[in-house]
Amino acid sequence: MAQCFICKKGNTRGYQISHSNIKTKRLFKANLHNLSVRIDTNTLERVAMCSRCYKKIKGDFWAGRAVSAVPVSLLNQEKFKKAPVKTA
After folding, report:
1. Could you tell me which of 73, 64, 67, 65 has the C-alpha nearest to residue 33?
2. How far is C-alpha 76 from the geometric centre of its chain's CA atoms?
3. For residue range 7-55, what is the model confidence (pLDDT) as tens digits?
4. φ/ψ of residue 69, rounded to 5
5. Rounded distance, CA 4 to CA 33, Å?
6. What pTM, to 2 d.p., does this model score?
7. Are residues 75 and 67 in contact, defined by beta-carbon separation less than 8 angstroms?
8. For the range 64-68, what are the long-range contacts, defined as Cβ-Cβ under 8 Å and sequence gap of 24 or more?
9. Angle at the Cα of 17 (from 15 to 21), degrees rounded to 5?
10. Complete domains list, the chain, with CATH
């Protein structure tokens, strides 16, 4: 079963309810994205991560807080980030 690497969120079963209250079974899928993630200093792994965890990691990364798993896309963006301009 596909699930998030961080929070273990996966698919959930439920019902689709029509206007006349007829219930049919359906599947709610988690919003997962396949990302390359740096787990240790030199370990890259391809994992599935839900959007909520990705947003949380992204915010923590740009705020300078410690992150357990950093997506490679964020590391590539950091290389091209412009240095702040100091005005005297």
Report:
1. 73
2. 16
3. 999 999 999 999 999 999 999 999 999 999 988 777 889 999 999 999 9
4. -130, 120
5. 9
6. 0.75
7. no
8. 68/39
9. 130
10. 12-75 (2.30.170)
